[in-house]
TrEMBL record:
Highest taxon of source: Bacteria
InterPro entries: ABC-3C_CTD5
Domain ABC-three component systems C-terminal: 296-490
Protein name per UniProt: ABC-three component systems C-terminal domain-containing protein
Amino acid sequence: MSTTPSPISTGAGGSTFEHSVQTEFICLMIGSGKVPINRFEAGYIIDHISFQAGYKDVETDDMVVTFQPKDGSVNRIFAQMKTTIRLTDNSLFKEVIDGFWKDCNNPSVFNKINDIFTIIMGPPTNVNTFNNASLLLDRARSSLDYQDFHSKIIAYDNMEQIFNVFKSAVEDAKGEAPSESEMWEFLRCIYILSYDYNNDPSHSKRNILHFLDITKKRVQGVEESLSVWNNLFAMVAENNFKAGILTSQSIFNKYPSLIDWFDQAAIPVNPVKIKIDEYKIGMLQTIISSTSIVDEEIRTLLLESMEDVYTKLMELDIDVIKGFLNRYHHPRESNPNLSVNGIGELFELLTYINCRVKSWSIQNFEVANLKVVEQDKSGWVQLIYSTNKFTFPMIILDLGMKLYNQTPYNNYFENRWIIENANMDSDNENLCDICGLGKDYPFSKLLIDFGKIVKIDYFKDVPGNSNGYKDLGNVKICCAKCIRKVRESVNVESLNDTLWGVLAGD
């Protein structure tokens, strides 16, 4: 936090963590990437980034990100970076809030409508506190006024505790208790981001290098992404020392080879990441605030699993995901374009599965698309997302016609099917073997009860036709709702047992 207007004194104290985060934002600027704050959706393009801006009477001076005008307004991110900060009642946290408060109440520096503050920190020492703080700030932004906001947090002790931490810091910054409206309006402006650049290996660095690699593939860049990163990092460090300002043009002037690398027309938008990022917000709120989670150890496990799955999915090549989605979606249709329907729900289901099974991989085989491995056990699962919200019988019979020639008839349900987004309005059509009628439910009975949905003659050549298709065995179906219910387990051991039973169909 700046206490002197000297550019030299304000620019010389940058750390490796700080420079790394700043370099990532530089990559997003010249690559037209989306910043990790949902308020700035697609269409917000970074115009320039200022470093160590204390000489401009800015208290929050580590980095100021300024976007190009949008709808006649200029939006900015004022970021303060503290890799070891804790979101508790301590001097470092209060120092950051003090700077935010001063800038927030200086209209020559900060616009309360267009600008935001961001605390950028290393990996949180307490994941629950971090998530409660993030959710608290989200609730402030989604509320009509202080009364609406306060009614949303008083029901949760953990959230009210973190609110009191912020309130105490604001009281110290103001010198007296803030009014209710002042407190609410101030919290609406604050976001929290976490990066692990000081870790080895670093997921944050791996992700941004992957972003560079994708760009390189599209424009046939000749340099290595790590080389590009190192050059940009050095430029950021130099401009921190000088309290400088960087634009895309100033970077391209120094490194002309990057003009082609970051050709705007060639840089792809990752619709999978956008969709999962959107879904993740509601999922995070559900896990943190759900009263059905009775064991806090399970809540922590789910939050950690969610981040683990997010990282794994972001590392996958887009072509791998596209191949998987072609088998995940029902009806299965040949679509040359990428459809991300159900990708958020997939992220959620994998989060639950990952609590027990850490070694899994998505595939694009016809009869199974998720491989799960645990110690000496392994198996396959067929994940299905009904894009048209069909019933279980419709999905089973339709896929049966498509898969009949690709798997031995007596292994039709060898692999577990987990179906998401099915129409389960009718109890008679709920063939989940956990919450419905599917336990020991013969496929032959399915043909008798629901055969009019398709042409049963399709199965006439199956050996066993004379005995009523009994050789086709029993259905092996689970609905996604039963996967979600594992979070209601009484403890982690019970959750693990239930999960394996659901996956194995035992």
